[in-house]
Design goal:
Protein name: PIN/TRAM domain-containing protein
GO molecular function: hydrolase activity; nuclease activity
Cofactor: Mg(2+)
Number of helices: 14
Keywords: Hydrolase, Magnesium, Membrane, Nuclease, Transmembrane, Transmembrane helix
CATH superfamily of the largest domain: 5'-nuclease
Pfam families: PIN, TRAM
Helix content: 55-70%
Largest sheet: 6 strands, mixed
Number of domains: 3
Structural class: alpha/beta
Radius of gyration: 35 Å
Number of strands: 11
């Protein structure tokens, strides 16, 4: 059906071109050695010849044209509606600008150029308008949203508080603690799950490596749990930043567009967000903040379970998983002893406590 439509379209184009160009074509023939004399009805004969020529040309062109149309259709179907809308608006704006400058260009005292330049500028500005509208769609959406919020004024702000977006990255979803935090109600606002994060989770879940596959499936289960079991607003962000390759860079860009915060436990992403002025909620920082405070000189009762990296060291753990390095604790492996805290090392990756046996302190 599509092929027949293409053949009909080519035939009509050929007939139209022949109708308008027929008199000029036959006029040139009369001035050439191939003079057939005056041709009756040059418009109609030209239309017939043009239609026949273009119809014959479709035998070679129609298949390629049909393939191109179907390829274009597949690409257009995959484009999100918002992307296509803003691309079309950009195209229209570019064509309007080109139309405004066509009149001055058409008056240039250069034969030929004054006819060609308007077409060139129409194509150029149309292309630029489409690309700008497509690439800047997220910024334009945020600008329109901000303008609407400002127009509604303070009354709406009093009736409905500002909802902040919390953008989840892949690591914090796989970690799983985000579901427990949402259940407690400490995390307010809307959880934003970008489509490119979902794609990365799916790739991990489809990995041939068993460990990666289990982590990916765990992340998908966590998301399903958050959506169906928890009383929290979840937004699946369908947009993408095709000009950016790295998922972390896309998260930073999305946080800027939505004026939101990135929720992560990735140390490197944490630093990148801080450098670019994006707010970060680090799950590890939250976990460290709610751990019991241990001060130097405090006494703790622990069980030494293994030896440390340095000579004579022993290692124990608190109930929350905090590691305690005990100087001279190797000889107490397997025993429960009292230790005195000497120092505490706190980082975004976790907390480490250094201590020494209380028995040694008494001996000294």
């Amino acid at each position: 059906m599509l092929k027949r439509f293409v053949e009909l379209a080519f035939t009509l184009v050929g007939a139209s071109a022949g109708y308008y160009l027929g008199p000029e074509f036959f006029g040139l023939l009369q001035e050439s050695p191939l003079n057939f004399g005056k041709v009756p009805g040059p418009h109609y004969i030209g239309a017939v010849l043009g239609a026949v020529i273009m119809f014959v040309a479709t035998f070679w062109l129609s298949n390629n044209v049909v393939k191109w149309i179907r390829w274009s259709e597949e690409r257009l179907v995959k484009i999100p509606a918002a992307d296509g809308l803003f691309g079309a608006l950009g195209l229209i704006f570019g064509l309007i600008v080109a139309f405004l400058i066509q009149q001055p260009l058409a008056q240039l005292p250069i034969p030929g150029v004054n006819r060609v330049l308007p077409f060139i500028f129409s194509g150029l500005f149309g292309y630029l308008g489409f690309r700008v509208g497509y690439k800047k769609r997220d910024e334009l959406i945020s600008v329109f949203t901000l303008g609407r919020q400002n127009k509604e004024g303070k009354q709406k702000n009093e009736e409905k508080p500002y909802v902040e977006h919390k953008i989840l990255d892949t690591s914090v979803i796989i970690d799983g603690r985000i579901a427990d935090i949402c259940r407690t109600g400490f995390l307010e606002g809307t959880l934003v799950i970008p489509s490119f994060v979902l794609e990365e989770l799916q790739h991990i879940a489809d990995s041939s490596d068993v460990l990666k596959r289990n982590r990916g499936r765990r992340g998908l289960d966590i998301l399903n749990k958050i959506q169906k079991e928890l009383d929290v607003d979840v937004l699946i962000y369908e947009g993408d930043f095709e000009e950016i390759q790295e998922v972390d860079s896309k998260l930073v860009k999305l946080a800027k567009v939505l004026s939101g915060k990135v929720v992560t436990n990735d140390f490197n992403l944490n630093k990148v967000c801080e450098l670019q002025g994006v707010s970060v909620l680090n799950i590890n920082d939250l976990a460290n903040a709610v751990k019991p405070v241990v001060l130097p000189g405090e006494e703790i009762n622990v069980q030494v379970i293994k030896d440390g990296k340095e000579h004579g060291q022993g290692v124990a753990y608190l109930d929350d998983g905090t590691m305690i390095v005990i100087e001279g604790g190797r000889e107490y492996i397997g025993e429960r002893i009292d230790v005195l805290v000497t120092s505490v090392l706190q980082t975004s990756a976790g907390r480490m406590i250094f201590a020494k046996p209380k028995l040694l302190e008494k001996a000294l």
